[in-house]
Amino acid sequence: MKFFADTAEIADIKDLAATGLLDGVTTNPSLIAKSGRNFMEVTKEICDIVDGPVSAEVVALDHETMMKEAEVLRKIADNVCIKVPLTIDGLKTCKALTSDGTMVNVTLCFSGNQALLAAKAGATFVSPFVGRHDDNGVDGMDLIRDIRLIYDNYAFETEILVASVRHVTHVLESARIGADVMTAPPAVIKNLVKHVLTDKGIEGFMADWAKTGQSII
Ligand code: E4P
């Protein structure tokens, strides 16, 4: 499963990229606003740090303007992935852009039928929002199971990019289901490594090693 960082914070992206475990980045208008940075500038900086896809979202609601915005965004770097909302205009834009070889991430997906449409529109990625479903009392992971089943039934190549990830259990469940990608806030990605028995184990080994009085280097 590929790991994307769901952030526009350069320091966090650099930090995660240095581990060699980061496969891409997703941004959205809210994350850009939170960063306080210029959209074009920060997107270019992210594209320079990460080799993989960097999602940059259009803000127009009609197809013609989405196409114009996508034209500007895709010039930022070769690894820009244009993010469009799951609407008829967004799907139309997705079809036009992917037919032309541009990566597209169809976002704000909340149902299996919407995911089916995104795949039919040739989306590179579809972004189902699990956390926002959970917030509304619906198990977001059921949506990932549905999409995996639907895409496998028809051998769709659109990658399932689990979004709105809030905690490590979302990541584990996504991997169990066989999602292609998950995008999570840096704090969640960093939490994946934590286990109390790992810490306790290191503590014990260090204490016993000290008793030997030896050193490796
Ligand atoms: C990423 O592509 C999505 O925009 C993001 O994961 C949404 O997360 P949120 O529901 O926590 O805002």
Fill in the CATH topology.
Answer: TIM Barrel
**Class inferred from helices and paired strands:** alpha/beta
Strand order within the widest beta sheet: 1-2-3-4-5-6-7-8
Query: How many strand units?
Result: 8
CATH class bucket = Alpha Beta
CATH architecture: Alpha-Beta Barrel
Helix content: 40-55%
Largest sheet, strands/sense/barrel: 8 strands, parallel, barrel
Report the end-to-end length measured between terminal Cα atoms.
36 Å
Radius of gyration: 20 Å
Number of domains: 1
Overall pLDDT metric: 98
Strand proportion: 15-25%
- Tally the helices: 11
Q: Enumerate the distinct ligands.
A: erythose-4-phosphate
CATH homologous superfamily caption:
Aldolase class I
Query: What is the helix/strand order?
Result: EHEHHEHEHEHEHHEHEHH
Shape annotation: globular
**Spans of 5+ residues with little confidence (pLDDT < 50)?**
none
Pfam families: TAL_FSA
Protein name: Probable transaldolase
Family: Belongs to the transaldolase family. Type 3B subfamily.
Catalytic activity: D-sedoheptulose 7-phosphate + D-glyceraldehyde 3-phosphate = D-erythrose 4-phosphate + beta-D-fructose 6-phosphate
